[in-house]
Design a protein that fits this description.
The structure holds two protein chains of two kinds. Chain A is 12% helix and 41% strand. By secondary structure, chain A is mainly beta. Classes of the chains: A mainly beta, B alpha/beta.
Amino acid sequence: MRVFIEKKGFEEELQFSGSVSGLLGLLGLDSSEVLVVRGSEVLLDSDEIVQEDKIRIFSVISGG
Amino acid sequence: MKCSCGKKAVFQHKDSALCKEHFIDYFERKVFSTIKEHAFFDDAESIGVAASGGKDSTVLLYLVKKYLEQSQSQEKLAKPKKHATLCALAIDEGIEGYRKKTLDFLKAFCEQNEISLSIYSFKSAFGFSLDEAVARLQDYGPCTICGALRRSLINRFGRKLDVVATGHNLDDECQGIIMNLFKSNTGFLPRLGIRTGVVSHALFSKRVKPLFFCPEKEVFLYSFLKGFGVPFTECPYAVSSYRDNARRFINSVSSQFPGAKESIASHFLSFLPALRRSVEKKQPKQCSSCGEPSAGSLCKACEISLAFVASR
């Protein structure tokens, strides 16, 4: 699975299939601080993702 | 998970799941009802939005404009004066590699949405940028310097308007409440809330927070779904701030107890009137240097400015 984490600014290759919350747990990310997107589809914590998916993770915390 | 209309949900909170269209409708209703119920813009002729080019103020700008347009035609919305003007006020603190990006976005957004924009900089108002101040003033944290100078400028220029809306969201408010409790700054608590200030005074701009009940993630989701294209930015000084720790703490609690943020904010609002009654309502003094409102003889912005000059 290819995961782009906006805050880090680069893409990672991961071996993962399961729920979005499982992925966030693996990456050590808090669900309330990120928005997970597959293509243009916004995903919920309970949504299932598979190895072939391209995932983008946006930080909802910005500004200042 | 599906929305009640059968479409794929993009948002879930407790037992509620909403698709894109229903989430947008839910979010706009929430902001509009906050504006209406708290009479933020009633009879206002000039409305300002404190804007940074970040997601919160961009969403706020868009929705205040939409509210003003709709309020002229819909009886159910509280009415500002006919032809009430809207403008964006932005502050350029002078943070290398950060602020220019957001201000460029803000300029384009305001142009596209036909909103007038005024930008005021620390450098022109105080003679130094935030970067310069942080490098030389070891006794002040970056957020302390930035907060004091920003508040001073927003107040100075916002005073010319009937009301200034700021993009503080639910997370910001909870963090403010918790930080002040943890630091025993209980004297600051009465200054928080959906409508800021303990006393009304000609020297204070009127400030309101239409996103008060909107969690940060909802604001981001709305911005994302509307396709605003707000650039990702994070203030380089935010990582070292006390607020960052408060955010992690509250989010950790909130993930175990959904609705905790809403509870913190709504309970705070319920006892805020009593809290405000309990404090002595001192009329502000005027800063002996700049004439702006101040708790002491010198306002915080001038105190910082003098410290900067002395550090040369």
